Amino acid sequence: MSKTALLIIDVQNDFLPPDGSLAVPDGRAVIPVIQGLLDQTKWDWDFVVPSQDYHPKGHISFASTNNGEPFKEKLVTNVHGVEYAQTLWPDHCVIGTKGAEIERELRHSFEPWKNKMKIVRKGCHCLLEAYSAFDGYLFEATDPAEPPTDDGSSVPRVIMPSDTALGKYLREQGVGKVVIVGLASDFWFVQPARSKNIPTDPEGSVLQTSLSSLGASFPTLLVKPATRGIDETATSKGFEKLEALGAKVAGKDGGDWEAEVREWIKY
């Protein structure tokens, strides 16, 4: 049986009510579900990889950087000279702030997995946006390094998901399946195409990571009860898009999602 990795996307204070600057309604509901998935008496993941949105001040996606209004689109130009419509966000997950930290109780649940864990930090270049965990820097979870926060000019303009740090790591470790949980599943954005086979308009870090996982040829499953978005309809449409591309969504019909996940991992 191939190895399975659990990716835990962006469960950070700034994405959580009541005080997060970009809080996902009911976002805290994912925490006990994910903690359950980290219960070693029930689950034995081969690898666990949490991600952090990790922005410098003045990031290209911030409304404050672009003299714009939060949640509105504005044409911006990234470090590679590519102009695109960027949804502008409130300042969030700024390096060195509490908002960038992974939620405290969830961090405690990571402790038993430290020997099987890496951490991804993404969105750290000031002139490049990055939603997918496959677009970030991979570090040891016990003492993660600070990623570069320059303009990102050293980053290739196009890199396939299988060639990213996370994609290479998972493949080198013999991972054959990827399970994805976390936040958020339906923030809308548009960014330059990453692969000719993958749509350019995914919604949210959970779905973007899922698209990257599929693009790297990993069989991919999302756990619906362990994800949340702003709008249920938009989230459902995003899940339908992923299913059309070959992903599995467990728990979407209110059934025994744990059994679905176990069965999918088994086969």
UniProtKB/TrEMBL annotation:
One of its GO terms (biological process) is pyridine nucleotide biosynthetic process. It holds the Pfam family Isochorismatase. Keywords: Hydrolase, Metal-binding, Pyridine nucleotide biosynthesis. Its EC number is 3.5.1.19. Residues 4-108 form the Isochorismatase-like domain. Pathway: Cofactor biosynthesis; nicotinate biosynthesis; nicotinate from nicotinamide: step 1/1. It comes from the Eukaryota. One of its GO terms (molecular function) is nicotinamidase activity. Belongs to the isochorismatase family. This is nicotinamidase. The lineage of its organism: Eukaryota, Fungi, Dikarya, Basidiomycota, Agaricomycotina.
